[in-house]
Amino acid sequence: MWDPITTRLLALATVVTLYIRRARRLAVWAALTSVVGLAMQYAIRAAVARDRPSHPDPVDSAHNFAFPSGHVMAATITCGLLLVLLHATSPAHRGWRTAAWAAALVSVIGVGFTRAFLGVHWPTDVLAGWLFGATAVAACTAAFAPRAHRASEGTTGLRVTRP
User: Phi-psi region for residue 145, left (φ > 0), alpha (ψ -120 to 50) or beta?
Assistant: First the structure.
């Protein structure tokens, strides 16, 4: 469920939904965040060129470079952008926010542990995926400030709250 293709399709569905709802600034931010994260992943992998762990009886296998974990970065970026959007567009329903944070944390941490457990990544590959994914979301959020978009997007059906 949390392979990079699925998480990127979820991000794409989010972008399309935002665009259809005329929240184009948020749609651009979500797309930009996903693209920046993917570019970071490929650039870092090419620069580091770290081989994957080798086991005599592997549970799973992968054939590209290991550092950072693409599964972990994709899950971190997608869950991160969904959490930022939740905070930017939803009223402060504490229960929903708590549930969303819990689901995101379980998903992102779970993906990381499964990648190491399956033997396709070193623990540092997973840690780097979490850190680089969170960095991509934080940098794009700071640069683009989706939570501070103007009232001109107030007719989109999305409620905008200020922190």
Answer: left
